[in-house]
Amino acid sequence: MNLQQLRSVRETARQHYNLTDVAQALHTTQPGVSRQIRELEDELGITLFRRVGKRLVGLTAPGERVLPIVERLLQSTEQLRRVGIDYASERGGLLTVASTHSQSRYALPPAVRDFRIHHPDVQLQLRQGSPEQVARWLLDGEADIGIATEALARHSALATLPCYRWTHLVLVPPGHPLEQPVGTPLTLQQLAAYPLVSYEAGFTGRSQIDAAFAAAGLVPHYALVAMDADVIKTYVSLGLGVGIVAAVAYQAERDAPLVALDARHLFAANVTRVALRRQSLLREVDYDFIRTFAPPLTREVVQAALRAEASAAG
Q: Residue 64 domain-assigned?
């Protein structure tokens, strides 16, 4: 049994049994993937995948039991590798923080700056992706800490801790009809009358935006969706539509001449969370980074959350 065999099994399930995609993801060949799977099946004495001819179409009953074990083995292997890197590195080890584009651009910079001042020997690696990618990197042991608003709390294998609440605001070019007299609140009906420019589904509180329109019986038209607020602001400036962005992404001086309209009454507040693998072995630098980003999340608070998650899972 070897790691490549385990990776082949895991990736086959992830790629919905398409061995061409598996081979591409693992940087190998399709015959190589098939051989790794067959060798592991022979060693275990069971068939892991159902087959129709030469095609894999699903997991067998033994395969359903084996796959979670394979996942845990690969996570533990990655954790061992990272411990080795931490203690072998003269620079103080590696800390990988995975987050969405919005968190990396607007929320993380002060924490990264302060953390680097106190931990100059730690190699800090930032990875950006979708909330689901952040969760997957954590689950695979490819990241130590995850930070996102959407998706993280849906994964039972992750312990998630709330960091801060934030809201959306609406952006329009100067002179836009939605600019209201002071004291006149914006309405969802007014917003729905214009093409919108906002986040992709599953990003940066988009679920709260969709929920608000749905509750009002409205179907908004999105002229453009993107992962990054800077992209959204660019296209609002070009007149493509009305923007909806995280409030933290707007600064009047930097983003002039765009006009910001209060939308706190339209969309529910969002919660950004820090996520950790429930069975992860945290180091002092992990605790320090979390506390730097979210001061209320002390070592004791994080440990209590991990214990509570573990008890709930058990």
A: yes
Looking at residue 11, its pLDDT comes to 92
pLDDT averaged per 10 residues, the chain (length 314)? 90 92 91 93 93 91 92 81 58 84 94 94 93 92 92 89 95 92 88 97 93 97 95 96 96 93 95 90 90 95 80 49
Q: Whose CA is closest to 38, among 25, 28, 47, 50?
A: 47
Q: Could you give the number of structural domains in the chain?
A: 3
**Would you say 202 and 130 are in contact if contact means Cβ atoms under 8 Å apart?**
yes
* Domain annotation covers residue 77: no
Residue 75 within any structural domain of the chain? no
Residue 314: what pLDDT? 46
